[in-house]
Design goal:
2 copies of one chain form a homodimer. Chain A is of the alpha+beta class. In chain A, about 50% of the residues lie in helices and about 20% in strands. Chain A contains 6 helices and 6 strands, in the order ααβααββββαβα. In chain A, the strands form 2 sheets. The first copy, chain A, has a 3-stranded antiparallel β-sheet with strand order 1-3-2. Bound molecules: manganese (II) ion (2 copies) and zinc ion (ZN) (2 copies). Chain A binds a DNA duplex through helix 2 and helix 4.
DNA sequence: GATTAAATTGAAATTCTTTTTCAGAATAGT
DNA sequence: ACTATTCTGAAAAAGAATTTCAATTTAATC
């Protein structure tokens, strides 16, 4: 955990930025929270521990993390962008339209087929998102 | 084309709505345009032929079409929601991050695998979106 | 440790899309 | 025609994302 933040701050310093106490705190809270957080979500968490940190810094920190490849943003269609750590393996999402819970899955065969589709269309893949919307196990009860 | 609009207006009337000249015009333009249009896009097209029609009516008409299942909305991550006809077969999208062009594909095996994933997770699928982002053939030149 | 240049911060302002409100116009039924 | 309800367009509001800017913090230099 600390080593990850070290790595991030190092990358930042190497690109002429400075490492600030505030940003470090936001990053810590982000990775310790886990899950799929909106800026607002993370801001609330941060505020609890560090009441002086502002919304914009949380917003900017998430942007930085995304740019450096340590966070991924996803749009689950509920109005606000969500962010999750990019330290774990790539995966796609099952999104419950009843409770909003987000489940994760990884299906290698789908990934392979995507590459096939891309090749057929002479398309160079940079990224993809597969969102499956529906009703989760809990909400079916 | 006219028969589709007839069907839509019929459905509307059956649910206590009225059929208006204005909405009919917007629907006509929408289906005749084709493609993946934002509200703004369609508004521009409508404005050209019918200068008196307002933005909000275009917005509302697209909403109605979506509710009735005649249009589908998709978010390609460029800030505004896009709409396309739902009269054609389901498909997914290849989105060029250079030129913004949107290509379509349908891969039955991916669909099958999605159902498999859902079953494994006791998840009842209602919908899904698979967006592949990258560089299209044209833009690779 | 003081000095300085550059980056960071938080609040406020701005931008941009989406959505709601509301008074007047159009529509459908009597 | 009369009436009730829906529809329309402009304007306002809502909401998220982003920018601006003065004050503060940081990193490097003296
Ligand atoms: Mn995830
Ligand atoms: Mn399409
Ligand atoms: Zn659920
Ligand atoms: Zn392209």
């Amino acid at each position: 955990m600390d080593e990850i933040i070290e790595r991030i701050e190092k990358e930042l310093r190497e690109s002429g930025k400075k490492s600030s106490r505030t940003r470090r705190k936001v990053i810590e809270v982000f990775f310790s929270c886990g899950g799929h957080l909106s800026v607002e979500d993370l801001y609330r968490e941060v505020k609890q521990r560090y009441p002086d940190i502002g919304y914009v810094t949380v917003y900017r920190t998430l942007k930085v993390l995304e740019e450096l490849g340590y966070a991924t943003s996803l749009d689950v269609g509920d109005g606000s962008t969500r962010f999750e750590t990019a330290l774990r393996q790539h995966h796609d999402h099952l999104i419950c339209t009843v409770c909003g819970r987000i489940y994760e899955f990884f299906e290698p065969e789908i990934e392979v087929l995507q590459n096939l589709v891309a090749r057929k269309n002479d398309f160079r893949i940079l990224d993809h998102t597969l969102h499956i919307f529906g009703i989760c196990k809990e909400c079916q009860k």
